[in-house]
């Protein structure tokens, strides 16, 4: 089975050939843990979770290494901790825990390893020292800066040429930068910084820049050259461009990631969902409203991963209805087929999610469980799916049993009364030939 991926680096759909089929390596930029994950963040995580699942299917579970980091040192984290008057560690520990809970609700597999930036400061310092030694970086007023001019191939991912960058650069440039495009590798601590965000370095107390975190952690776990690097398309420039510059600058002759995959934005009325625009919905907001994690996941998977996905109530309602249809079909199947070829074929074509979802709906039902598994859906027992969690406080099971007793006693009026009472609560009964009944929410 050959996987094809759209490679942002070449702007082409390419055959995926791993460097080592016994250890296929993928790195994806993980969350900056200063707030709850919103649906845009979730889209990115879910998309690469599907890619992880396909790679595991094609190469074998043991032969795929997937690294998704946690950015737990960053200016936004410092600002959020300060605003809440808590330590950075307290904030990042809480946010990481919430992130894990939310992603579990979306049935996201844990990556092979989830390194934290704060636990890899030494590796970052080592890289920065090498960059200084190779004249790709310089020290200025307690900062260490990457010298973009020292990397002639800078811009190869985003296809921005250096002159273009300069004309677009902000007018106000920090005086210590030799070139407006130079970016921070290490920055000095502020006097009022919480001690948990301050680290010793050869350049004084401070903290790393965001870009060097990913270069250091990807090299640590995947080596200087690896297969796939993923993230949202907002990260292509400058974050990913800078990662390439840092890594190739540290290890001359290396190429860093060979395939660059970027997921499209999740939008609201055409605008990117983001914290700064205030148009965000968190995963938790929806879970708290009683929306099932699997419904959110399915809604995120309905669109091609690298196209914009406009979020709406309708999208969510349709996702619920479509999953209900699939679960209903699943409940009628006793024999399950193991044939997942149709869905794997669709996903191997640059993760063609819409075709994969259509294949599910075209299936008579006997392959649904296994096929759904490739997308991380349809793994629940259909009874559990339709029952969901009851927060209304009514004793549904008790009423269903009472109705069965009434039916046995041929007390049809009582049986109908109970059926109607449940219907008023939005609960539908489906009678089975053996006299028992299944219930589900409308
Ligand atoms: P952040 O926590 O902002 O660093 O983002 C974590 C991940 O979510 C990155 O890969 C971003 O590219 C991705 N991301 C953020 N907002 C969106 C969005 N609206 N749509 C898709 N991906 C997003
Ligand atoms: Zn990154």
Outline of this structure?
By secondary structure, this protein is an alpha/beta fold.
Can you walk through the features of this model?
The chain is of the alpha/beta class. The protein folds into 2 domains: 4-263, Rossmann fold; 388-442, no CATH class. The chain contains 16 helices and 15 strands. β14 (427-431) and β15 (437-441) form a beta hairpin. The two termini are 41 Å apart. Residues 29, 31-32, 40-41, 43-44, 231-232, 234-235, 263, 265-266, 272-274 line the site of adenosine monophosphate.
CATH superfamily of the largest domain: HUPs
In CATH, the topology of the largest domain is named Rossmann fold
Number of helices: 16
Return the CATH architecture of the largest domain. Answer: 3-Layer(aba) Sandwich
Category from helices, strands and their pairing = alpha/beta
Unique ligands: adenosine monophosphate, zinc ion
Coarse morphology: elongated
Range of helix content: 40-55%
Strand order of the largest sheet: 4-3-9-10
> What is the total domain count?
2
The N- and C-terminal alpha carbons lie at a distance of 41 Å
Strand count, sense and barrel status of the largest sheet are: 4 strands, parallel
Strand composition percent: 5-15%
Arithmetic mean pLDDT: 92
Radius of gyration: 26 Å
